[in-house]
Structures are given as structure tokens and as C-alpha cells.
Amino acid sequence: MYDFLGFLEISSYSSDWSRHISGSDPCQWDGVSCSENGGGDVVELHFAGFEFSNSILQSIYKLPALQVLDLYDTLLAGEIPQVFTQCTNLISINLTLNHLTGPIPGSIGNLANLETLSLTSNVLFGSIPLQLSYMKDLQFLDLSDNQLTGSIPPQLFSLSNLMTLDLTSISLSGGMPQIFSRNLIRVSIGNNRLNGTIPSTVSNAPNLAYLEMNNNHLIGPIPEQLGNCRELQWLDLGNNKSRGPLINVLPKLLQLKYLKLTNNMFEGTILDELSILSSLNYIDLSGNLLSGNLPSKIFKLNRLQHLWLQNNLLTGTIPQNIQDAVSLLELRLERNNLTGTIPPGIGML
């Protein structure tokens, strides 16, 4: 049986939510789910949008059977208490969009059953605890939009069940981990201070669909092994220091819809082979060192809506078949070395 008095104490931490309480059975209260085995244990709390004091995290341990805790946008403030991690049956934690501060406690590693952890949009600082690298059941980890610093724990990307990892905008530095889990589908590490090269081992994640590494200090070429990620739909390497030609890895990414390589030092020509990527609807290659002619085949992409090629070294004329890009909404070609007249077909778009 759940700790009834303990739960009543928890309910007192929100005058906002407590107005929705009716009846004496907490299992019938809004946002509360209990076990179906007759024991009456509280297993899920869904309090998103209600205002709570941070004391609720201090008292959660009084619900030892708790599996799901959703306190999204509940105005929580203060630090995440160590005692909170005594709820070892937790599977999912969502503390997104609050005012939590301080470090992520290393004792979070005690939550061996945890599959989902979202701490995004708080004011957490310190480093990413190494203990997160040992949480073998973790599938979803979002620490984005905090003030965390330091490097990425080297084993974090290799968690065998991890599918989604979001470390965007948290001031991380250092290099990229070299081991990628086979189950990774989404990796977002943009808006940090990461350096070094994109590891060739990214190909260990064949199901990767979303790769966002923009606004870092990455150098070197796009590794050819990225072409083995045949499910990739979103690739954003913008605003780094990457260089080299747009190698033939890109035409291998047949599912690609979004390609952003802006403000790097990529050189060479725009590949004719991009025209076989029939799903592409966004291309931004602006701010590079691309030269040669603008290939006419690129306008045969009938789903292409945005084509940004400004601030390069392109020469020649604008292809006459520009009207073939029937879905095109935005075309930017300024600050190149293009010559000739504007094709009349541009008025047909």
C-alpha cells in the first residue's frame, strides 16, 4: 500500500494542483496513476503545467514504486536533491522547462532502470556526471539548454540502448566521443565549443536519422564513413571550421531532406549527384569556398524549397531550367562571381 500520509504531504506542495483534488483516494486524483495489482502503489505522476515547490523532489522517495515522474513546466527551483535518486524504480523523468540549478547529482546513476531523462531548459551547471555513461537502459537523454561545462563523457555515445541524445547549447568543450551506439537515431550537439574532427565511427550508427553538430569548432572533412548512415534525413554541420571537398558521401544519403553546411571552408564544385537526392527540401551551402558552375541538375529536385548558395566563388551563368524547381520558395545566389542574365523562367516560380 502506498505511503498515504507521505503522498498527502506531497500534495501540499502545490496549491495550484491541489485545487483539482477530489475524494480521499489519491489514485483517483488528476495526474496520478496507481498499480493495477491491487496494492494501490503510486506508479506515475503527471503534473505538467502545475506550479510546485522544490520540496516535491525532496519527498518523492516516499513513493518507492514510482516509475514515471513528469514535472514539465512546474516552476521548480533550487537544486536536484540527492534523496530524489532513491526512487530506484523510476523509468522516466521529465523536469523540462523549470528553474533548477546546481549540478546534476552523480547519484542519478543509482536509477539503473531509467529509460528517459529530460532536464532541458533549466539552469543546471557543472559537468555531465560520468555515472550517466553506465545507465544501460537509457534510451532518451536530453540535457540541452543548460549551463553545463566540461567534456562529453567518452562512453556516453556508446550506451547500447541509447536512441536520442540532445546536448545542444550547454557550453561543452573537448573532442567528440569515438564510439557510437548502433541504436542511435538522433544526435544533437550543436551550439557548444566542441573541437577536433567528426569521427569516422559515426558509421557504427546505421539507423542515424538526425545529426546536428552546428556552431562548434569542428575541423577536417566530412568522413566518408558517414555515407553508411543510409537513414540520415537531417545533417547540420553549419558554422564550424570544416574543410575539404563535398565528397561523394552526400549522394549516398538518399533519405536526406535537410542539408546545412553553411559558414565552413568546403571547397570544390557542387556535385551534380546531389540531384539524385529526391527528398531534399533544404540546402544551405552558403559561406564556403565552392567554385565552378551551378549545376542545372540541382533544379530538378522537385521538393526543393530553400537553396542558399550565397558567399561562395561560383562562376558561370544561372541555369536556364530554373523553373524546373517547382517547389522552390527561396533562392540566394548573391556574393558569387556569376555572369549573364537572369533566366526568364525565374518568373514562373
Describe the structure.
With 349 residues, the chain is mainly beta. The chain has a domain at 1-140: Ribonuclease Inhibitor (Leucine-rich repeat, LRR (right-handed beta-alpha superhelix), Alpha-Beta Horseshoe). It is built from 3 helices and 26 strands. It has helices at 4-11, 15-18, 55-59, and strands at residues 32-34, 42-46, 68-70, 77-79, 92-94, 99-102, 116-118, 123-126, 140-142, 147-148, 164-166, 173-174, 186-188, 193-197, 210-212, 217-220, 234-236, 241-245, 258-260, 265-268, 282-284, 289-293, 306-308, 313-317, 330-332, 337-339. The N and C termini lie far apart (67 Å).
Reconstruct the topology from this structure.
Blueprint: H1 4-11, H2 15-18, E1 32-34, E2 42-46, H3 55-59, E3 68-70, E4 77-79, E5 92-94, E6 99-102, E7 116-118, E8 123-126, E9 140-142, E10 147-148, E11 164-166, E12 173-174, E13 186-188, E14 193-197, E15 210-212, E16 217-220, E17 234-236, E18 241-245, E19 258-260, E20 265-268, E21 282-284, E22 289-293, E23 306-308, E24 313-317, E25 330-332, E26 337-339
Parallel strand pairs: 2-3, 3-5, 4-6, 5-7, 6-8, 7-9, 8-10, 9-11, 11-13, 12-14, 13-15, 14-16, 15-17, 16-18, 17-19, 18-20, 19-21, 20-22, 21-23, 22-24, 23-25, 24-26
Antiparallel strand pairs: 1-2
